[in-house]
Specification:
This protein has helices at about 20-30, 35-50, 55-75, 90-100, 120-130, 150-165, 180-185, 190-205, 230-240, 260, 265-275, 290-305, and strands at about 5-10, 80-85, 105-110, 135-140, 170-175, 210-215, 245-250, 280. It has about 300 residues and is an alpha/beta fold. Strands 2-1-3-4 form a 4-stranded parallel β-sheet, with helices on both faces. It has a 4-stranded parallel β-sheet with strand order 6-5-7-8, with helices on both faces. Helix 3 (about 55-75) crosses helix 12 (about 290-305) and helix 4 (about 90-100) runs parallel beside helix 5. It is globular and about 65 Å long. The two termini are about 15 Å apart. Bound molecules: ligand FEC.
């Protein structure tokens, strides 16, 4: 049996060819194929950002960056592999491959900073369920919403953008919306987004309400209520507020350039802001920033130590 610890880096996944869009969407919908209208609408969004999403390359770059950072901490100890939620290699297939190699311990980390039963919780539950039958010991990194390197990355980028923006600019901190029923179930997701927003705002001396606010984005196309206010609704409100001249969206719930950023913000929200006469910008995504990946590597190393 190998002595190496496997690190399962988990991310959402994306179609890697146009004919994969339908099975991908079916997987997101838990096995229910999308209607032709929904499929055409999603295909149209991918076409608008160039045909496919850069998420697969971004996730691989993040994997390589995390592996390099772990190698610097503990040479030869870790092997970093990708496990995806909605595309191949799925989390379960990755764990099966690790078991076949004789790996006995694995640490999971999710490329999403905010803990939620729907997000980090689902990824780690799937990792644990897949590993258990193989007798693989599993540890998991949970929230990294206020990891100082992450907060600094966002705060530094936001400060530079604010300096170039109109004086009366409102910052909107966003994350992917989730069904509102998670609140009744006691999910901490909204507090997680708030904790990132407050940490960044505090760094820059921004006041809630006048300088920044929370908004949600990219809600699912289902009839049930989703967490709000939606970023487009907030833009509408700010567009009719004479004291606001511009917005900067900081999509702190996402850590890579992908459809929900490149379409939902860079195309859809930017166009809405333009129609409303608001200046528009958004902060950069972490992608494979080495400082943030080094901080995540340290979290993985701590979790591996806890596994014993
Ligand atoms: O670039 C890409 O190709 C993939 C971008 C992508 C990311 C992403 C992240 C999150 N999602 C989360 C929750 C939900 C829930 C539903 C849902 C639906 C979609 C659809 C697409 C999609 N998501 Fe996603 N999400 C991305 C893409 N997501 C496409 C289907 C069409 C649509 O509704 O837009 C609703 C499922 C249902 O119908 O029941 C819930 C959460 C995240 C952030 C955390 C993470 O990255 O895991 C939460 C990236």
């Amino acid at each position: 049996m190998t002595t190496r610890t496997a690190v399962v880096l988990m991310a959402y996944g994306t179609p890697t060819s146009a004919d994969q869009i339908e099975p991908y969407y079916t997987d997101i919908r838990r096995g229910r194929p999308p209607t032709p209208e929904l499929l055409a609408e999603l295909t149209g969004r991918y076409e608008a950002i160039g045909g496919l999403s850069p998420l697969a390359e971004r996730t691989e770059a993040q994997r390589a960056g995390l592996a390099a950072a772990l190698e610097a901490i503990a040479p030869g100890e870790y092997e970093v592999v990708i496990g995806l939620k909605h595309a191949d290699p799925k989390i379960e297939a990755t764990v099966d491959a690790l078991a076949a190699q004789g790996v006995g311990r694995a640490v999971g980390i999710v490329l999403a900073p905010h803990d939620s039963t729907y997000s980090i919780g689902q990824y780690l539950d799937r990792l644990t369920a897949a590993a258990e039958p193989h007798g693989i010991a599993v540890g998991g990194v949970r929230s990294w919403a206020t990891e100082p390197a992450f907060v600094s990355f966002i705060a530094d980028d936001l400060a530079a953008r604010l300096a170039a923006a109109p004086d009366a600019t409102r910052v909107l901190f966003t994350a992917h919306s989730l069904p509102e029923r998670i609140i009744a179930a006691g999910d901490i997701y909204p507090d997680e987004l708030r904790s990132t927003a407050e940490a960044v705002a505090e760094r820059l001396g921004l006041a809630e309400g006048s300088d920044w606010q929370i908004a949600w984005q990219s809600a699912g196309r289902t009839p049930e209520p989703w967490l709000g206010p939606d970023v487009l609704e907030v833009l509408d409100t700010l567009g009719s507020d004479d004291t606001v001249d511009g917005v900067i969206v900081s999509a702190v719930g996402f850590v890579a350039d992908h459809l929900e950023v490149l379409y939902d913000l860079d195309i859809e929200a930017a166009q809405r802001a333009d129609e409303l006469g608001l200046a528009f910008d958004r902060t950069a995504c972490v992608n494979d920033d080495p400082t943030v990946l080094a901080a995540l590597a340290a979290r993985v190393h701590d979790e591996a130590a806890r596994l014993g």
